[in-house]
Amino acid sequence: MDPLGMAVSSPAVLGRHTSNRDHLMNSSDPTHPANHICSLCRNFYTLGWVTGTGGGVSIKQGPHIFIAPSGVQKELMQPADIFVMEHATRSYLRKPPVLKPSACTPLFLAAFDRGAGCSIHTHSQWAVLLTLLVEQEALRKGTRLADICFEIEKIEQIKGIPKGRGREGMLGYFDRLRVPIIPNTAHEEDLTQSLEAAMERYPDSYAVLVLRHGVYVWGDNVHKAKTQAESLDYIFRLAVEMHRLGLPWVDQDVLE
Prior knowledge:
This protein is α+β, with helices and mostly antiparallel strands. It is built from seven helices and twelve strands. α4 (125-141) crosses α6.
C-alpha cells in the first residue's frame, strides 16, 4: 500500500505493463485524459485556481482513472507526469518515477464511486473567502461549524448547475443552490470522511467547499465538471461582492 492507502502493483504485475503502460498516455487526441488534464491545469493556473502546485484534476475513462501528480507546477505538467489507476482494484497501472500521486486521490475516488467522470479541486480565492464569510455568520448565530452550508438563489448563473445526481435538467433561476462546507484538516487525505458525509447529506450537490482551503467539484464528464467549476466560481465571487455591498444571498435574510 502507498501512503494514501492505495494498492501498488507488485513488480511482477508492473513488469507485465512495462511494454504497454505508456500506451495509456500516448495520444495526439487533445481530449485524451492525459492531455486533457494538462490543458485544464494550465487553464486553471491562469485563473489562479492551482497556484503553487495546489489543487488537482482527475478523469475517469472506462476502468481507468487518470490523476495529476502532487507537487508539480500545474502550468508545466506533461502527460508523462500523469498517474493511471485501475478503479476496481485501486491499483496503480502507471506510476511516473520520482513523482507522488495527488493527496486529493481519496477524495477524487469518493466522487468516482458515486458515478462522476471528472473531479476538480481548486484553491480559488473566491471559494476560500466565501467559506470565511459563512463561518463568520455561523459563529455569530451560534451554528455548529459542522452544519454550515452556502446557499444562494435568484442568480442567473445557477442555471449552470445540474439539479442533482440521477435527476434530469439544470437548476433554475428560482431554485436555491446549496453547497456544503466541511472543516479543513492538516492533511488533504484526512478530508475524505467528512467529504463523503457531506456527499450523503447533500446528494444533489456537485461540490463541497472546504473551510479556509478551496473547493471540490465533480461532474458526469469533463465538460460538465469544468462548466460547473466555472459557474460555481462565478457565483462564489458574486456572493463575496454581494456581501460587501450588504446584499442578501437568499430571501429569508431580508426577513431576519
